[in-house]
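Morning!

This is the sequence you dropped in the shared folder:
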Amino acid sequence: MGSSPPQPKRRFSAHMLIASLVFLVLLFVAGGAVTVDHNDRPTRISPSSKSPDATSAAAEEITTPLSRKMLRDNDRTGGGGHSDQPLPRGIVHGKSNLEMQSMVGDPEKDQQPTTTKKKTKSLLAIPVGIKNKAAVDKLVSKFPADEFAVILFHYDGAVEQWGDVESLQGRAVVHVAAAGQTKWWFAKRFLHPDVVAEYDHVFLWDEDVEVDAFDPLRYLDVVRREGLEISQPALARGSEIHHGITARQLNGGDVHRRFYRAAGPRCDEGSAAPPCTGWVEMMVPVFSRAAWRCAWGMVQNDLVHGWGLDYKLGYCAGGDWTVKVGVVDSEYVLHRGVPSLGGGRSASASRIAVRRRSYAEMQIFNRRWKEAVAADASWADPYPEK
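The structure's back. Tokens below.
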């Protein structure tokens, strides 16, 4: 009686035996599952040599083969197992252009390798109204079709009446119509940087300019030679001029980047801020591809006149705005300053109403700029106000 082991101990030993058998079975099954696809690339786990508890056995490299599907999921998600990309990478084509495509034929024919490099183009974008059709015809005719794509923004909604314009004949032109909208409204919605990424430069011009003395190819030669990321042609005598820096300077050079005025302190010798330096106005700006990507992001969706934006364009020049922003004197235009928008009011009332909103937009834009600067602690202003 005294030599018999207590009954509870026998029950405990039996349970331990069953648990051990179950554990061995599970271990065998798990090991088989892990090594099913033994041809896959293994995931390697190397213990840190800095750990004080690392033994010689633990220091050896451990490899655990994973299935191909798990590896693909890890590549896409960082190991989370669920892809946040709904499409395979190779099918995504994030950029486009404004070139016309045929509805028939072989779509890959133009993609075959050729011995000659495909010529890059620039883009001319103009807000137009039917009343200025003759001026627009003359303007577009200056831009060679093989060098420039053209998009016309019809702010009066009239598109069909442009079929007889000579400069548009035989030329692929994109027409966008939205009644009563401004150049910057159109640009924000239809000139996304990814859509115009294939164009070297974007000419975002008003329609009321005379181009008798202007050649766009010579203009781009000057821009590239001078390293200008943001530019405009100078305004000829007789133009509507709001800031002295945009007026043509007859000093014999191709470009000027600074304006001095003897009378008054606004543009004295020490002025290094717009509109005395690093300035172009909003009627005929020309942007490089990189500068337009930046400027497009700065254009506000609800501020349609662009007032205030011109003071900040120099931030998009990709460098010193006293060097990268300039006015081209050798290729100049005449700005007639013809009012175009106003919602059916009389001419004088229309101009007053447009200017009132333009000024209000400038105040709003300046406030938003200050708020954005204050909220972004990581951004340092390269041109702090003195």
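Headline: The longest helix spans residues 347-375.

More detail when I'm at my desk.
O.
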